[in-house]
Every structure is written in C-alpha cells, then in structure tokens.
Design a protein that fits this description.
mainly alpha; 3 helices; about 0% strand; elongated
C-alpha cells in the first residue's frame, strides 16, 4: 500500500482546513483588512484542503468484518 505521499496529502489537507476554520473565526477583521478578497481566500483554502483530502482516498473500500 502506498502510504508515503497519500499520508502526506491527508495531513496537509487537514492543516489547510484548520487554517480555513481559523480564518472563519477572524473573518470580521480579515474582511475589514482585505475586503471581498478575504472570502475568496477562504474559499480557495477550503477547496484546496478538501481536494487534498479527497486525493487521499484509497482505490478499494476496506473489506467488511
């Protein structure tokens, strides 16, 4: 099983989504500083994080117990 790059993508995707969550907490000051671009930056971060998480999916589902 190829766990090297896939595992890296999983943790990188989680880190980017955590950063997007922190952005939501501070969206007020960010929108005052960046304007509409704060929302655009948040959408890009969320999309990249989800894309990295989805690229980590394995080809086959695990066998049922």
């Amino acid at each position: 099983m190829n766990t090297g790059k896939r595992r890296h993508n999983f943790w990188l995707g989680n880190a980017i989504l955590a950063l997007a969550m922190l952005m939501l907490l501070f969206m007020g000051p960010l929108s005052n500083a960046l304007g509409f671009w704060a929302v655009v930056l948040w959408m890009v971060l969320a999309a990249v994080g989800v894309a990295l998480l989805m690229s980590d999916k394995s080809d086959e589902p695990p066998a049922p117990d």
